[in-house]
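Action item from last week, closing it out:
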Amino acid sequence: MNLYNLGLSGLAASQARLNTVGHNIANADTEGYNRQRVVVSTAGATSTGVGFIGRGVMVDSVTRAYDGFLYKQLTFAQSNGAATLAYGNQISQVNNLLADNTVGIAPALQRFFEGMQAVASSPADPAARQDLIGQANNLVTQINEANAFLQNQRQDINTQITTTVSQINSYIERINDLNQQITTARASANGQPPNDLYDQRDQLVSEMNQLVKVSVVEQGDSFGLTIGNGLVVLSGTSVYPVQAVPSQADPSRTVVAVTVPTGPGQTTTVELADNQVSGGKLGGLLDYRSNSLDAIQNDLGRLAVGLAQSFNAQHRQGLDASGQPGGDFFGLGQVNALANQRNTGNQAISAEYADIDRLNGKDYQIQFDGSLYRITRLPENAVVYEGDGSELSAAPPHLIDGLQINLGAGTPRAGDSWVLQPTRNAARDLSLVISDPAAVAAADAQGGSANGNNALALAKLQTSKVLGNGTMSLNEAFSQLVSKVGVQTQQNATAAKAQANLIEQNYAAQQAVSGVNLDEEYINLDRYLQQYQAASRLIDVGSQMFDTLLGLRN
């Protein structure tokens, strides 16, 4: 009977191996599948007078060829790759918009000042004046439309954030469900690993990492998940959903928030700063918005402010065709000042452009702690003022980066805050005030229809250093913006290429351990088939021996 047992154990082991090889072959192209193998050990031996006779083989388990370090390297690279791709998709659109030398702001700016030169040369020519108005209107339109493109992109990012957060929550729920399936499966299989469920869960974590960088905390058979700076979104069977909500500081801005447990059965919602979320599509979108889009729109607004303020100041010094003093040529809106929606006080804060040369295209946060105001320049969080506010409106006013900040009526409460966006909407609000060609103040104080001295001074503003603390003209300010976007686009393209190579290398390393090699599986298939046939033959031999023994009795 020992030959029967030996043959049966061999058949069982061979059949398990054949089934596993077949499973490997069938899943060779299944995303996230890790090659499986049968783990066997000897069944021991029986002591006899002439030594120990073996009892065959035992199937201990079926395990997967898995390297946790290689898996984490791959998912980390994929997460960074997805972030780089999301960033690149956005910045490349802006680069295409601004870098076009045939249409857009650059040629419109050039033609506007050429029109101003023509008026300076022929101040009495109504055609030259009419052409100037047309070129001015075109310049305003181009700046407005460029800002509208950026604003549409901002709204599209809000939508993408909302959609991506919804997808992230779906992955969290599915991973939580697999956690429970794995726990149940292991309990029903005496602790044997449910490899296919492990693969499915790892694949979900990998796919989730391409939406946002997620860290896995192993909790027995379950995965806990955190994002950002260790913020828990899954622990045990408790899910803490991610949310996409309007920012309390700026409701036009969709931000990521997490649900944080505060006690038994209690949670609160905490908004995350853009830089607290990294990796994946979501991290790439937030990185682009905070580090590129905000700055691009602010710099475009600074150009609009510089153009309007410098041109208006010079235009008011001249006389129009009727000998009347010139008025504003361009119109501008107000500085964008936003009170946090959580403020309990009712104080209003405003700001005015006082020195355009010192404008830097930054935003500012104002905080009140109950006695003192603190003004911080964003995004570098540099404190530029701290005091009780009396200096801000004193005579002469205390300017902060060219801004006069006014503490309005109302009473602040401790914890109140405001955000100033001095140039964010300036390109949107830029307008042409003059429509009558005769209202162009081409003459200086001497007057006369042949006097184009003020028009000449206006034309010189194209190259005058009116921005950047006396370092940039209007042309140079726009060229700097185009160059900055071009550099960011190129840096992203280089990073994307490097990241794609890294993903390829990490994938190859991971597949070398975990991937299915069909040639190897074919060899194993033939090998295990021979083992199965040999084990069957062993049973046949045992049957013949048993028949022989029975025949001896006859």
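Closing note: DSSP finds ten helices and 21 strands in the chain.
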